[in-house]
Write a structure and sequence with these properties.
There is one protein chain. By secondary structure, this protein is α+β, with helices and mostly antiparallel strands. It contains 13 helices and 17 strands. The chain has a five-stranded antiparallel beta sheet with strand order 4-3-17-16-15, sandwiched between helices. Strands 1-2-12-13 form a four-stranded mixed beta sheet, covered by helices on one side. A two-stranded antiparallel ribbon has the order 5-10. A hairpin with a 5-residue loop joins strand 12 and strand 13. Helix 6 runs antiparallel to helix 13 and helix 7 runs antiparallel to helix 12. The longest helix is centred in the C-terminal third of the chain and has 22 residues. The radius of gyration is 34 Å and the shape is elongated.
Length: about 450
């Protein structure tokens, strides 16, 4: 027969059970799975029991409040992870800053694409915890408002960069949509060619590929050809239907004004300008290494697809004397009290000489003044600090104007997509050329440049 438990032990057990029930009642609303065997819970429980023995008193209202506060810490620390977001006070996302401001450090940027762009840039360039920090971007509120107010075209994208430091001042529309860049590649090729010292803006090359065929390799007897509609073979490269081709030599400046392909193809395939070195130059200048950026003869035709931001970065390299800086979207991160906790490194890589870059800007100025259509007529001034290149892809699925005005670089790319996200022709002609790019993208580019100028 089981021995009878002493009365004093039974009283202690009753008090212990009451205390256990009290604890359970306290935290029934806190968590459905209170774990009373965990170390924090057990330790506090033992301290309360010991205090009762010493003081020979019941836990009053103050003691209950203390127990709830202290034991609650233990419960918060031991509930399953699926409850933590509901239980832990002050939980913050390490990827979410306290505030995001324009470059002035005072004006908040509302939720939307511009704020998303800054956060995406930070995820790539800053590996620390953003929780509680204030983000000061490089976006200029006035330039942003001026640039986006002029995006009258349906699917237009614009990027504005300060070429002196790579700071992105404005982004609008489809600024991150990759598009065939077409003739925008020509000034990049000129920069690489001028660097070798053999060519200048006044160097001449034949204009007619049929009379002066190109060969892929020195000593080759087979000229480069391409198949036209109807499988007719023509000497490469193809030309826009609006580019008048005659058996004459033209300067590289004239070739840029016309958008002719033959002179630039000759530069690309010259003995001192192999495809591999030119490909490397394009990426060092700021082009993204997309799958369609390849070491092939068609590289000079601009078949690669790049975003307006990428092309603004490339032309900023040319505008700032040949020094490339990666696009910068955040100027600094601030901690409590406005303390600066991080600034991005101010780095630049020289990809071409200042002289070569200056020669390219001269060509861009001439291209702006030349026969590029009517879209840029309002900016055809004598100011040598302004220059631009117009472009449109062969199927007219993209239209561009990208150029420099003082230290601002403005890149505008216009396109249209169908319901499946495929680029569709912008007009009925379905051919490329400077005239098409100038006509479609020129007015938007001119409006943005004037707005930025007026802003100061």
């Amino acid at each position: 027969m089981k021995a009878r438990e002493p009365e004093n032990n039974r009283n202690r057990n009753r008090r212990g059970d009451a205390l256990e029930n009290e604890f359970r009642a306290m935290f029934a609303q806190r968590s459905e799975t209170v774990r009373v065997t965990t170390a924090p819970y057990a330790a506090v429980r033992q301290r309360i029991i010991a205090a009762r023995r010493k003081r020979r008193m019941r836990v009053g209202s103050v003691g209950v409040a203390f127990a709830m506060a202290v034991v609650g810490i233990g419960v918060w620390a031991t509930v399953p992870s699926r409850h933590q977001s509901a239980v832990q006070p002050g939980t913050t996302d390490p990827h979410t800053p306290a505030a995001i401001f324009y470059a002035d450090g005072r004006t908040p940027i509302p939720s939307g694409p511009l704020q998303d762009a800054a956060l995406n840039w930070l995820r790539t360039n800053y590996k620390g915890n953003l929780s509680g920090l204030t983000v000061v971007t490089t976006f200029d509120q006035g330039v942003q408002a001026a640039a986006t107010a002029k995006l009258t075209a349906g699917d237009a994208g614009v990027a504005v960069i300060d070429d002196r430091n790579g700071a992105v001042l404005a982004l609008g529309g489809t600024w991150d949509r990759p598009l065939p860049i077409a003739d925008l590649m020509k000034p990049v090729l000129l920069a690489a060619a001028f660097e070798g010292g053999r060519y200048t803006p006044q160097s001449t090359e034949p204009l007619d590929a049929q009379t002066h065929p190109l060969y892929m390799a020195p000593g080759s007897n087979e000229p480069l050809v391409y198949a036209t509609t109807g499988n007719q073979l023509r000497n490469w490269p193809p030309e826009s239907p609006t580019t008048p081709i005659r058996d004459v030599d033209v300067t590289l400046t004239q070739a840029a004004q016309m958008g002719a392909n033959e002179p630039f193809a000759r530069l690309e395939l010259a003995s001192d300008m192999d495809l591999t070195s030119f490909y490397g130059f394009t990426t060092r200048a700021g082009m993204a290494k997309e799958s369609n950026l390849m070491r092939t003869a068609s590289l000079v035709l601009g078949v690669t697809q790049q975003t307006p931001l990428a092309m603004a970065s490339v032309y900023a390299t040319l505008g700032d004397g040949g020094v490339h800086r990666d696009p910068l979207m955040v100027g600094q991160l601030l901690g409590p009290g406005g303390r600066v906790v991080w600034t991005p490194p101010a780095t630049g890589t020289r990809v071409t000489s200042a002289n070569s870059a200056q020669q390219v800007t001269e060509v861009l100025h001439a291209a702006l003044l030349g026969p590029t259509g009517t879209g840029l007529a309002s900016l055809q001034t004598g100011d040598a600090s302004t220059g631009a290149m117009a472009a449109a892809s062969a199927e007219e699925t993209s239209a561009w104007v990208t150029g420099v005005d003082s230290h601002y670089v403005v890149s505008v790319g216009i396109s249209s997509e169908d319901e499946k996200g495929r680029l569709v022709p912008l007009g009925p002609d379905k051919h490329g050329g400077l005239d098409v790019g100038s006509r479609i993208a020129g007015p938007t580019w001119s409006d943005v440049v004037r707005a930025v100028r007026n802003h100061g």
